[in-house]
Amino acid sequence: MSDFVIDESHLSRTQEIFEKRQQVVAGGESSYARLSSTRPIVMTHGEGAAFFDADGNRYIDWCLGYGPMIFGHRPKPVVDAIVKQITEGGMMYTFPHELDYEVGRKIVQAVPSVDLVRFANSGAEATQAAMRLARAYTGKDKILKWEGGYHGFLDCHALSYHPPLDVAGPERRPYTVRCGSGIPRVMEECVVTGTYNDLDGLEHIVREQRGELAAIICEPIMANAGIIPPEDGWLDGLRGICDENGILLIFDEVITGFRVALGGAQQLYDVMPDITCWGMALGAGTPAAAAFGGRKEIMDVETRNEVFHGSTYNSNPMVLAGINATLDILINDTERVYGHLNKIADAMVHGMRKVFQEQGVPAQVQQVGPMWQVFFGQEKPVTRYRQARHSDMLFYHHLQMECQARGVYFHNFYLERWFSSTAHTQTEVDTSLEAIEAATRTVKERLANLPAMPGH
Ligand code: PMP
């Protein structure tokens, strides 16, 4: 492996652009999740499994826009379809067109629980619409979510996402905690918070709520607190409790949909929700690719226009062209695509476990198909958000900085995750593992005399 390290001397242009944008963009970023970046990256372009910064440095990308880019950067069939649509048809219609039939048909064909869909402009809009639909269908107001789970940044979602544990109440019956200021206190009254992978706790909460819950919204695989897979019986148990109590089950498959399998996590685990939300992989990186859908009987509330849902940009042909091209590949080449995504992820997970084991670094590398995360300082598998939260964030943070300096990028927050794409090959795996090995050695030495820092 080369000794080349991307330090300040190779980041002058990056630094200059980064600083000047702080003068016009508040905080220099337009999304809270990106503010945590340690050493700034100013990106100029992406290419397959990698991207380049303003100084020409190349980074192997295991973050992939937080997940969407299942074919890597600039996948030609998707880019070509969007360019053709823009140049020959236009960006916006706000009239019916055939693409929404084509894309809708493909989603319905791919996802087992879905008869009808509606398009949205972001994962947050899709989950908001799904929650409103559930409220309209059941006539009830309250929604249950898991502590640590993320569904968007709107008032209805920005609750108990990574809450500080000193204000979060008991794990069996967590308090609902607003994320930062500006969210009306009243939102705490319509969102109840539970714990992923805790069936007893869930039964207790459902009893306590005495028929007031419209829906449970959740990621079937918890992918916003690192990667926490469902324990045996959890998803079936969840489905059963919803059925027994007249509660709708919403699967937020914004991350998992079209990523862990063509039919998403519901296909992988064979548990069917009532409503599903998609974003991210749906358009392989096409911005604003999002939708929700469900059984006909429920979606007919939308059909009858009894629930308020809309947006100027919903189902615009530019985005749908990107989704359409993505779904064509995923549907026509299912085995090859998911086989490759999993093969690359397996090789990374195997290699990372080996590095940490050989260097005596306690770590759990947890994976579901093409997504994984490493929890440092953990001796046993991580099954709950609060356990994930107690992982060694300092080690993770330093490892990320060292890897970034060696041209290997993953998000620097210990509760994000890594993704593979069809553009990654064994070469990227080998280069990344070499960098991780060297970085781990460096970080171990650096932190040797410091106590591990628990989750913030
Ligand atoms: N749901 C989940 C599970 C997500 O991870 C995200 C985004 N991280 C969203 C919803 C919101 O999606 P968007 O950022 O497109 O609004």
- What overall geometry do the principal axes of the alpha carbons give? globular
* Helicity range: 25-40%
CATH superfamily of the largest domain: Type I PLP-dependent aspartate aminotransferase-like (Major domain)
User: Which CATH architecture of the largest domain is right?
Assistant: 3-Layer(aba) Sandwich
The string of secondary-structure elements, in order, is HEEEHHEHEHEHEHEHEEHHHEEHHEEH
User: Structural class, from secondary structure content?
Assistant: alpha/beta
How are strands sequenced across the largest beta sheet?
A: 4-10-9-8-7-5-6
What's the tally of helices? 14
CATH topology call of the largest domain = Aspartate Aminotransferase, domain 2
Ligand identities? 4'-deoxy-4'-aminopyridoxal-5'-phosphate
Largest sheet: 7 strands, mixed
Say what oligomer this is.
single chain
Strand-residue fraction? 5-15%
Number of structural domains: 2
Spans of at least 5 consecutive residues whose pLDDT stays below 50 are none
N- to C-terminal separation? Answer: 35 Å
- CATH top-level class of the largest domain: Alpha Beta
Mean pLDDT: 95
What does the model show?
By secondary structure, the protein is of the alpha/beta class. It folds into two domains: 8-65 and 334-448, Aspartate Aminotransferase, domain 1 (Alpha-Beta Complex); 76-332, 3-Layer(aba) Sandwich (Aspartate Aminotransferase, domain 2). It is 39% helix and 14% strand. The chain contains 14 helices and 14 strands. The chain has helices at residues 12-22, 76-89, 98-110, 123-138, 187-190, 199-209, 234-245, 264-269, 296-303, 317-332, 334-358, 385-389, 393-405, 426-447; strands at 43-47, 50-53, 58-61, 116-120, 142-146, 191-194, 213-218, 248-252, 275-278, 290-294, 363-368, 371-376, 408-409, 418-419. The strands form three sheets. Strands 4-10-9-8-7-5-6 form a seven-stranded mixed β-sheet, with helices on both faces. A four-stranded mixed β-sheet has the order 1-2-3-13. Helix 8 (264-269) links the parallel strand 8 (248-252) and strand 9. Helix 6 packs parallel to helix 7 (234-245), helix 11 (334-358) packs parallel to helix 14 (426-447) and helix 13 packs across helix 14 (426-447). It starts with 11 loop residues before the first helix and ends in a 9-residue tail after the last helix. 50% of the residues are buried. The structure holds 4'-deoxy-4'-aminopyridoxal-5'-phosphate (PMP). 4'-deoxy-4'-aminopyridoxal-5'-phosphate (PMP) binds at residues 66, 122-124, 127, 150-152, 219, 224, 252, 254-255, 279. Residues 66, 122-124, 127, 150-152, 219, 224, 252, 254-255, 279 line the site of 4'-deoxy-4'-aminopyridoxal-5'-phosphate.
